[in-house]
Amino acid sequence: MQHFEVNFDGLVGPTHNYAGLSFGNVASLNNANASSSPKQAAKQGLQKAKALADMGLTQGVLAPQERPDVLTLRRLGFSGTDAQVLEKAAKQAPQVFLACCSASSMWTANAATVSPSADTADGKVHFTPANLTNKFHRSLEPQVTGRILQATFNNDKYFKHHTHLPDNEFFGDEGAANHTRLCQNYGHEGVEIFTFGRYAFDTSKPAPQKYPARQTLEACQAIARLHGLSDENVVYVQQNPNVIDQGVFHNDVISVGNQNVLFYHEQAFHNTDAAFAEIQQKFGDEKVYFIKVDSQQVSVEEAVKTYLFNTQIVTMTNGDMAIIAPTECRDSKAVSSYLSDLVTQNTPIKQIHYFDVKQSMRNGGGPACLRLRVAMNDQEVDAVNPNTLLYDTLFERLNLWVDKHYRDQLLVADLHDPQLLIESRTALDELTQILKLGSVYPFQQD
Ligand SMILES: NCCC[C@H](NC(=O)CCC(=O)O)C(=O)O
């Protein structure tokens, strides 16, 4: 049996915009109200995904969500026709309205936590959508995310879907952005590393002071229970509260792992030595490469600006690893010289590939945010909805679909345009036919 890691990239939705919604995410705050290009954003994402497919990796896509979220606006008391709902909300509660327009589901690293079948008690691949409670605009995602995941991984024999954790800050969960899995190979039992920002039920423990810690230990523990993980395969590590206060709102902004590599900044974790000893012990006899970047090489500020750690580390068909980095890393002297040196060292990382994902970066989402990793064996890959796997035909079809429906430019002030709602729904309706997802959106269920 063969084993793969498949990346499911989030398609950028037609309302991609910069509304400054994410307190604690420096790029989101700095780019508030800038004009965006949904078309360019979607194409940048597709290019990156297709390039990985061309490198011989299996690549899938996940559908975006319906925005503006008229259903939520109605729940909040705005009434009338859809156009009236948009107009009233934009006028009477602009911040609430903007939150209901975000295309943030594009960052599928926050869609769910996934545990491969090699790690779970029942031998199925488990999915728990993230509840994303810390940000109102993101808390609107989990229900539809669950439907999209079920329509993508639509076979009960191999896939187990859980409901997202209770919607409150005690169980704040941001999905795979705070979860990394190390393993000797993808089919082998792995070590699932859950990273959290604070203890929900013990306020005497360290926590950030300035920016929110979005993920709690208790949420991580609940997911490990739901997925049937053994204590022998799980490590919980607290993020260094101080780096959260410097803009590291998810752990994937300061560390990334793949197979036997954990690439991290020296300030990423609290109690690093104890955590790494536990990881190595649970990993087994083979050595884990803990690749440390220290503050003199790259400061936390530079790491947040360039997203050095929001890179993907992928295993190529010849067994070497490659780093998939945003062009911001190439444009930084400190980071690009670090990376050029890294590939000459004695680690599995041998190549660096740069991609322009600026439209996403301006909202604090790099290459790693744009993908959800699902390690599977060949039978499981065969059980995935085949229309969501990105081969040449789907790539071409999706590019045409973007050209047909997406605007070149969008301003925050355009979001209440009723025509945009019609365009978005028309696009998404067609997308569900292309990907054969069925009726996953509220507007399709009226
Ligand atoms: N994993 C990357 C997530 C980025 C995302 N940004 C946003 O939602 C910004 C949206 C805006 O500000 O318009 C977040 O912070 O959760």
TrEMBL record:
GO molecular function: N-succinylarginine dihydrolase activity
Highest taxon of the lineage: Bacteria
Record-linked InterPro entries: AstB_sf (IPR037031), SuccinylArg_d-Hdrlase_AstB (IPR007079)
Record bears the keyword Hydrolase: yes
Keywords of this entry: Arginine metabolism, Hydrolase
GO terms of biological process kind: L-arginine catabolic process to L-glutamate; L-arginine catabolic process to succinate
Binding site for substrate: 19-28, 110, 137-138, 214, 252, 363
SUPFAM superfamilies for this protein: Pentein
Catalytic activity, EC: 3.5.3.23
Catalyzed chemical reaction(s): N(2)-succinyl-L-arginine + 2 H2O + 2 H(+) = N(2)-succinyl-L-ornithine + 2 NH4(+) + CO2
Active-site residues annotated for this sequence: E174, H250, C369 (nucleophile)
Pathway(s) per entry: Amino-acid degradation; L-arginine degradation via AST pathway; L-glutamate and succinate from L-arginine: step 2/5
Quaternary data: Homodimer.
NCBIfam families noted in UniProt: arg_catab_astB, PRK13281.1
Family: Belongs to the succinylarginine dihydrolase family.
Job of this protein: Catalyzes the hydrolysis of N(2)-succinylarginine into N(2)-succinylornithine, ammonia and CO(2).
Entry protein name: N-succinylarginine dihydrolase
